Amino acid sequence: MSGGKFLGCWRTELGTLGQVLVLRGFDTPEEMTAERRRALLNANPFNAGSVVSALSMDSYAAFPFLPPVQPHAFGPTYEFRTYRLKPGGLPPTLDGWEEAIEPAREYTAHLVINMYALDGAPRITHIWGFASLEQRAALRAKSYAAGIWPPRGGPEQIIEATSTIALPESYSPLR
Fold first, then answer.
1. Rounded to an integer, what is the distance from CA 140 to the centroid of its chain?
2. Distance CA 127, CA 123 (A)
3. CA distance readout (Å), 13 to 17, 23, 79, 169
4. Residue extents of the structural domains in the chain
5. pLDDT tens digits along 56-93
6. Maximal C-alpha separation, the chain
7. Mean pLDDT, rounded, of the chain
8. Please, are residues 125 and 157 in contact by the beta-carbon 8 Å criterion?
9. DSSP string, 60-110
10. Which among 95, 85, 152 is positioned nearest to 121, based on CA atoms?
């Protein structure tokens, strides 16, 4: 049995194909570390047999000013966007996002979560849910045109950006 609170599961549709993305929440850093250790030391960590051919895990903390993830039907189109940041780029990124969330509410209402990495390269990953790619594009264009998005100071911190579109599995709490 795996640990943590199961929040969502998606399969990739655009970007690197053939991946299953899983979002779990943990009450404490110790609980997360114990679960990572359990998965790494197990030949069949999620009871999926030979379906799992590779395993990659990242540790994140949610932006402190955002509400916790709640099961909700945001999708069915989810975007997973990761920005690798310059060293020292996280504080201005956090500040910009905190200022931009409310003015861009029509767009940011689709934000599932934004998180910063606790391991590896400095980076943030945010997950968005939209009814369609068209809705995503229209909301982004409207927010950009109004000058309320992207968050102030954020783009200057980005070294590299990736985006993956994924669809929720039927059993995912986030649909």
1. 17
2. 14
3. 6, 17, 10, 12
4. 12-21+58-168
5. 999 999 999 999 999 888 989 999 999 999 999 999 99
6. 51
7. 94
8. no
9. EEE-TTSPPP--B---SEEEEEEEEE-TT-HHHHHHHHHHHTTTTHHHHTT
10. 85
* Residue 58: both structure tokens together: 């990242």
**Alpha-carbon Rg of the chain, whole angstroms?**
16
Assess contact for 85 and 137: CB atoms under 8 A. no
10-residue averages of pLDDT along the chain (175 residues): 87 94 95 94 86 89 96 93 98 97 96 97 98 97 96 95 97 94
Asked if 166 and 130 count as a contact pair (C-beta separation under 8 A), the reply is no
Pairing between strand 158-168 and 111-117?
Answer: unpaired
Looking at CATH, the fold of the domain delimited by 12-21+58-168 is given as Alpha-Beta Plaits (3.30.70)
**CB hemisphere CA count around 98 (13 angstroms):** 10
For 31, list phi and psi in degrees, rounded to 5. -65, -40
Q: Tell me the pTM.
A: 0.94
Q: CA–CA distance from 5 to each of 62, 132, 163 (Å)?
A: 14, 27, 25
Written as six digits, the tokens of 107 are: 């767009």
State how beta strands 111-117 and 60-62 pair: antiparallel
